[in-house]
Specification:
Length: 231
């Protein structure tokens, strides 16, 4: 059965184009025009992915994203933002949006982004390397996409998981933000603050003291490096 995408946007012109392109790509598509209707639709029948506009009536996209992230099923979210809303875009990423596109955007690019996110959710291989990555009490199983710290399962978004796995596959190597953006997000260009936000969120989940990280360390002027605690 075709995967189902819920489009949440109150601009009928934009939503009609988005829905048409997604349907042409083979997805089942539903559309709602406000945040409250989006939450009701997800509760009634969880979709495989939500395309979520930031500016919505009743409940805005940030609040909808926050509530979706509180669900145990972890429905992936691609957020649509106005190009100038950098602060809101970063906040959306901090709330757990898996991807974003700035308006105006190419519908073809959105379809590609939807496919990329859904393939990762479906367990597409993250590249060559061991299926289980371990470091001290941290264990990342790339097949089932499960991460545990000291036996406790971590709640990671799609991109957080992929970023952690990529960093752990290259221990001791300084990785540029642009390289991480390309390898993890599949973007050849884009806002590198996306990487910074996701590193910050990862540190909050895997570091004993996120303000003094031991695993994901900053390489000033370059990017980040994963330092194994096993030595």
């Amino acid at each position: 059965m075709a995967q189902r995408v819920l489009v949440v946007d109150d601009d009928r012109t934009v939503s009609d184009v988005v829905c048409r392109y997604l349907e042409h790509a083979g997805y089942r598509v539903d559309h709602v025009g406000d945040g409250a209707a989006a939450l009701a639709a997800v509760a009634a029948e969880p979709p495989d992915l939500v395309v979520l506009d930031l500016m919505l009536p009743v409940l805005d996209g940030l609040e909808v994203c926050r509530r979706l992230r509180a669900r145990p099923d972890g429905v992936p979210v691609i957020m649509l933002t106005a190009r100038g809303d950098e602060a809101d875009r970063i906040l959306g990423l901090q709330l757990g949006a898996d991807d974003y596109l700035g308006k105006p955007f190419s519908p073809r690019e959105l379809v590609l982004r939807v496919g990329s996110v859904l393939r990762r959710v479906g367990g597409e291989p993250l590249g060559a390397g061991p299926a289980v990555l371990t470091d001290g009490g941290l264990e990342v199983a790339t097949g089932p996409r499960v991460a545990r710290l000291d036996g406790r399962e971590l709640t990671l978004t799609l991109r957080e998981f992929d970023l952690l796995a990529h960093l752990m596959r290259h221990p001791g190597r300084a990785l540029r933000r642009a390289e991480l953006l390309e390898r993890v997000w599949g973007w050849s260009f884009g806002d590198q603050s996306t990487v910074t936000v996701h590193v910050r969120r990862l540190r909050e989940k895997i570091e004993a003291d996120p303000a003094r990280p031991r695993r994901i360390v900053t390489v000033w002027g370059v990017g980040y490096r994963y330092e194994p605690t096993d030595g």
